[in-house]
Amino acid sequence: MKFVEEIVVEEFLPTVRSMLAADLRERDFTQREVADALGISQSAVSKYAHGEVATSDAISEDDRVQALVERIGDGLATGDMSRVQALIEIEVLIRQLEDGDLLAERHRELMPELREYDASFDVHDPESGARTTEQVRSSVRRGLRILRNTSGFADLVPNVGSNLVECLPDATDVEDVAGIPGRIFDVRGTATVPSDPEFGVSAHVASVLLSARAAGVPVRGAVNVRYDPALVDGLRDAGYPTVEFDVDRDAEGHDATRPTIVDAVRDADPDPPFVLYQTGGFGIEAITYVLGSDASTVARIVRDLVG
């Protein structure tokens, strides 16, 4: 009797770990860094490097496996992908390959009795909440890298700080929105990001994003920068719809949408990506918001504007 899980442990995981170890070494990771990234020992990394671990050609030559290894290697190298997301992505592919695919076929080879059954094994949901959550965090990390590498972004950070956010597909409150704890601040001309993205930490920009969504615009990413008429004109000239809204002094709370934003966006009915702005008031700083399909998209818009 042979379980498909045994094939995963004995064939799939050694092959993928070997491929990932080789990929990361090609990206100039040290043996220690590879071990830390993969959660294995240095001696295991050494064995993979010297071909002392049996691997499967059928698995290593599969296009989907190769694409996943490259994507995870790039994500781990840039910091865009956490180890949790890497684990989830591998698990998702495993379940796909178990479901009437490569691993299922290997299972039938080892258990020929299974060939008389036309059955598949759907034991994992590829659209799981955990996977979606990690994908959102990854997108915010990519957007942050774009902003940090953008010369001049620090000059766009308002006095209250900037935040880059992205929400889950069915977001209803700020707990469904990932952002930067403590916001992004200009520290001596450098945009400083204090921590890794978390959910529920940006009541301000998150509420603006949720308000735009409440108005019917399918956006999931937003970033705020300082207000300047020339800045808004530049975004408008670049082809992005611009929408002005009035300051809402009563908009508070962790799950609040802002009626003045909802009304302004609903009246304008802009196609995303688009720009929201308010020109301030007594004790309230004027701010510009760029909203789009995800965090990376709005970060690129800011980068292109500065450039």
UniProtKB/TrEMBL annotation:
Any one GO MF annotation of this record: DNA binding
Pfam families: HTH_3 (PF01381), ThiN (PF10120)
Domain HTH cro/C1-type, first and last residues per copy: 20-48
Highest taxon in the source lineage: Archaea
Protein name: Helix-turn-helix domain-containing protein
Organism: Haloplanus aerogenes
